[in-house]
Design brief:
- 43% of the residues lie in helices and 20% in strands.
- It is of the alpha/beta class.
Length: 276
């Protein structure tokens, strides 16, 4: 198998155990790297006991979604598939993705279909990606997209490292958007491919939706200041007025965001405008 599955997890060992069991049932069985993101439960010991073939990287603290970067760096395969600790890949999905990466050298990321819950409901994001106004180029396997769900994405490892991976400044929330921008800025293509499929059974152990929305607002402000034109940055004032807590979080991180400001190339900015 030429694809490593990377999972970042924190304090959800029961969900993780289910995911690892599902991955172990795949044939061929992919190598798996679990990055324990500063868990306070017995995640590391239980995984090492029950799944001796799984490599565990234990972090002393929670570094957010940048934990995935460590898993990608540790992988020794040309492709890496991400799972959350409550998602897993369908039989044959990773092999299909490998064939696509081999056939399409510009392809940096495959955004898969996400089937939610035992009912296998398509995540609404999939419908949006399937009808992307960016269209399908002749040398690509599906509609071009500029976003994805991390729990159901496969990357070319070299492209991921070239783009810098997930930015630790964001910690959690909307991290896929910034990585999508950075992949495209480096000349890599992102495509939605319906026949590559993953399952997501959302964990019951999760922060409130209101908290997640606030974090995403904060990070969307930061991403704008890091990559978008100054005219777009000025418009983030509306978010500041609607959500003072998100604004406060963004302001604390803004100096670091500005130090890493790197405006996007014109062709990527045009794609963003087409998707708006």
């Amino acid at each position: 198998m030429r694809t490593t599955v990377v999972i970042a997890t924190r304090n959800r060992v029961d969900d993780l155990t289910r995911t690892l069991t599902r991955l172990r049932e795949l044939s061929p069985t992919p190598p798996v790297i679990v990055v324990d993101n500063g868990s306070r439960d017995d995640t590391t010991s239980r995984v090492r006991h029950r799944f001796p073939g799984v490599r565990v990287i234990r972090l002393p603290e929670n570094v957010g979604m940048a934990a995935r970067n460590l898993g990608v760096e540790a992988a020794n395969t040309p492709y890496v598939a991400f799972c959350d600790d409550d998602s897993w890949w369908e039989q044959g999905a990773l092999t299909r993705a490998e064939v696509l990466f081999d056939a399409y050298p510009r392809l940096g990321l495959v955004a898969a279909t996400t089937l939610v819950g035992p009912e296998r409901r398509r995540d609404p994001v999939c419908d949006a990606m399937a009808t992307s106004p960016l269209g399908t180029a002749p040398d690509l396997p599906g509609p071009r997209v500029l976003g994805f769900l991390a729990c159901s994405a496969v990357v070319r490892r070299s492209a991921f490292l070239d783009a810098g991976g997930f930015d630790p400044l964001l910690h959690f929330g909307a991290e896929e958007k910034l990585l999508a921008y950075d992949l495209a800025a480096r000349g890599w293509e992102l495509c939605y491919v319906d026949r590559v499929r993953a399952h997501h059974h959302p964990s019951t152990v999760r922060p409130p939706a209101s908290w997640r929305r606030r974090i995403e607002r904060r990070n969307n402000v930061l991403i704008t200041w890091m990559r978008r034109p100054l005219s777009d940055c000025a418009r983030t004032a509306g978010i500041v007025l609607r959500d003072p807590l998100a604004a406060a979080g963004a302001l604390r991180r803004l100096p670091k965001a500005l130090r890493s400001r790197r405006p996007l190339p014109a062709h990527v900015e045009q794609q963003i405008r087409e998707l708006a």
